Amino acid sequence: MRKEECFYLGKIVSKYSYKGEVLVKLDTDEPELYENMESVFISLGNNLVPFFIGRCRLHKSNLLRIDFEEINDEADADRIMGAELYLPLTFLPKLEGNKFYFHEIIGFTVLDSDHGNIGTVQSVNDTTSQALFEIQKGDKQLLIPINDEIITKVDREQKTIHVKTPDGLVELYLS
What we know:
The protein is mainly beta. It is 7% helix and 46% strand. It is built from 2 helices and 12 strands; from the N terminus they run βββββαβββββββα. The protein has a 6-stranded antiparallel beta barrel. Strands 10-9-8-7-12-11 form a 6-stranded mixed β-sheet. β9 (132-137) and β10 (140-145) form a beta hairpin. The termini are far apart.
């Protein structure tokens, strides 16, 4: 399994017990979806290694307490401390309407209500406080905020995202 075929689920942040249980900080809005997993991929070095889960349950809000079958003591747990967890993209629940996963809209054409085709989504920058579409139009790059007021329609069949950008935003990049 390659990382490109997976999504980031979370990171092992601490040990929970002397028997090797660990706590994973999940990167999700719905942690309860991952309570009864049977296995995950753990990033070790440059590889994704499958690990089987003996028991898995929520611990406080967005922490998952996992007892891996292969991890039996604190020394074993130390070896995976800080590692990232991944699941195959096929495990993601399907989204509909204007909701989307960032990876699925790469390559979509962005159509602005006033300016028409303003380019193609190259990536999403989610390292800022406001996630941004990184759109390429010829040799210019546009950064458009991702929010419900701007996105009017996501058309998966046509691979388009319809937006109504604030006045002056597109001109800032294309003039």
